[in-house]
Amino acid sequence: MDPATVFGPSATAAQGDTVLGYIRSGLAEGARATTGGDVPSGFDRGFSVTPTVFADVTPGMRIAREEVFGPVLSILRYDRLEEAIGIANNTDFGLGGTVFSADEDAALAVASRVDTGSIGIKFFAASHAAPFAARLGSGLGVEFGLEGLHVYLKPQSVHRRIRS
Which Pfam families does this chain map to (predicted)? Predict the structure, then answer.
């Protein structure tokens, strides 16, 4: 409950082990941990993993293709915008993303081409008034917004002839 905490521990030992497995996988496949990559010292309880940033990540690496659900960031280089959009869409998952650009119109154009259920421009957030939708193997359908209520509805059309 420390207000200075930015990222807390994994919810379970199994998830902590999963995140550490992704980190080991990244290192084994040739990614370079620029920071983190281990369990922080001084944490005798909980399932903490040091926030890890990977450089030298290629699109085929597991840490680039899968959802880690832990404090792991993979940096992939690209030369052209088309290549960046291809990298973003080259995954079996697409729950959320963020586009960073000094040109907001260009960022919006890129966002419309990234296959993700929710996307932010220069930040990421969710709103209960807007749908939060899954893509591909991510998530479990649609939450929030009017679209999120559809799972609870059972539409029916009733037709009758009106007599005069």
Answer: Aldedh
